[in-house]
User: What shape does this take?
Amino acid sequence: MVRGISIGNAFRRQGKKVDFIILSSSPFAHLADIFAFKHREIPIESENKLSKTNYPDSELYHTLTSLNPDILMIDLLWFSTNNFIKELPCKKIFLWQRMDDRFFTIDLPEGAISFKPESYDLVLAIEPFKGEGPKRQINPLIIRNRDEILQREQALKELNLDESQKNCLLAINAHPRDFDKASKRYSYLRDMGYRMVTTTNYEGGIFPVVDYFNAFDLIICGASYNSFWEAVYFDKEAIFVPTHTRFVDGERLISEYRNYTFNENGADQLVDIVMSL
Assistant: This one.
């Protein structure tokens, strides 16, 4: 959802008149309402429902064909549309990030399926990477540009924080229990003089939390795509908490890119590409 919102914000920022819709099965779909973006939710469907035989009856297929987009951007989930992606008449962009190789080949009872770059008009890397990957790359997609978030004085005021104190933000949105674990692990920072502000989107947290980054001297966040690249883009002193997932290596992000710098928001770069198709 955050990447979709980031792209929608870039369309608005550049004054592009497009009918932008986010399609997801996310438990955080309501976050799009904060930005007044159109969104539709569909159920997660099984491989049987999306098989070569059954996909015409799937909710995903019906939704995509009814929307009939001119451009379809697929954020990682290539396997959901694998059996009908070629028949969709629109331009298709696959948003790629560094994943474990197992993500791009899936064994199913009817046989293995693999990601096919040739099914798309463009496969676009949305973060830096080492090793094999798409030929074309843009910067990470960020929900706000640097000049769009609150200045320090206003951010402190809205959060009722004191300028004279050291302020620390703990924002964890990975797995539901990760927030509680991180809160306990880093509670010692209070004894070091930090005023702690904690938030998670599982409990109606602060969103978008980047709006308040200027209020904080230290940020504790997950080493997942959105949180990691937001902290890097806004040049924040940060403690990254590796997110344990099957296909994304948070430790790799930290070791290889914590000192990476970039200035242009990849969402703005993406919009330029989309409008040129």
